[in-house]
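Hi support team,

I'm filing this because I wasn't sure whether my run with glutamic acid finished correctly. The job status page said complete, but I'd like someone to confirm that the output block is well-formed before I use it downstream. Pasting the exact inputs I used:
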Amino acid sequence: MLTTRLAPSPTGALHLGNARTFVLTWAWARAHGAALPLRMEDLDSPRKKPWAHDQALEDLRWLGVDWDGPVLVQSTRHLAHVAALNTLIGAGAVYPCSCSRKDVVSAQGAPHAEDELQYPGTCRGRWAGPEDAFADVHRPVAWRFRVTPCPVPFDDAIQGRVELDPASSGGDFVVARWTPDRWHQVGYQLAVVVDDAAANVDTVIRGDDLVPSTPRQILLQRALGLPTPSYAHLPLVVGEDGRRLAKRHGDTRIAAYREAGVTSDRIRRWIASTSGVLPSALDDPKPDVIRWSLVPRQPVVVRSHPVPDGPPD
Ligand code: GLU
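And here is everything the job wrote out:
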């Protein structure tokens, strides 16, 4: 049986952009008879909001999205995440790193966008263990996964062939943090790989802001002997400035539409119209109408402030 998943993060409200990804994931799963578990990705504790878990579920239900089985809260998988980290430590695939963000920025020299920080490998082979690194800097240290220069290609059902080299797009990347009191705190890249494999997820559908993460996750799958799922990265919804939909583009929270009296049907029609899908196809999804080849590859641009009249047609 095919298996995909919904993986919201309780770090903020669901807005038009992530709602579109979730509705399309749901439609694809129901059309193709795939299992659809929901995993709440709550590992990003500094950005976590106490209300966001319940609100995400409420917003999804209101949009007509359901899922299979109980909600899995990612932090409850801590032991499985740490077991995978220990496998990587045992294999010498990760090393302790004491660099702060500032260290990485200054070592990099040329200014890069924040999400393009290139780690120069400063701590490779520098510390015998995380304790040594911690004793030197007295702040949490990271476990970094060692990458060697080599493209990691994958075939994306929407984007086509993607070929990125993690060594030149970020370099050795962080998989966990270590503090003497909190022990290991595993981060997104490793947790997602471990949890997708444990849930037998063979089809990952998500926003294309995560395309650069995919080669890293493929390297982790290989290092852990886990299968690589197939990927479909949906083009994002962006504002007129071409940037990913955010607060500065106006209030596009699903809850705000609901409070303003916009019907979920209207939102679903907007999602269908921006995705090469007939509105009626979302009522009873079938494989011939929910196909990735129909989804435009360009980002969807939201032009005007959509509330209270609803999303622009
Ligand atoms: N939790 C992530 C997000 O909300 C999605 C991660 C994934 O699908 O791999 O952006």
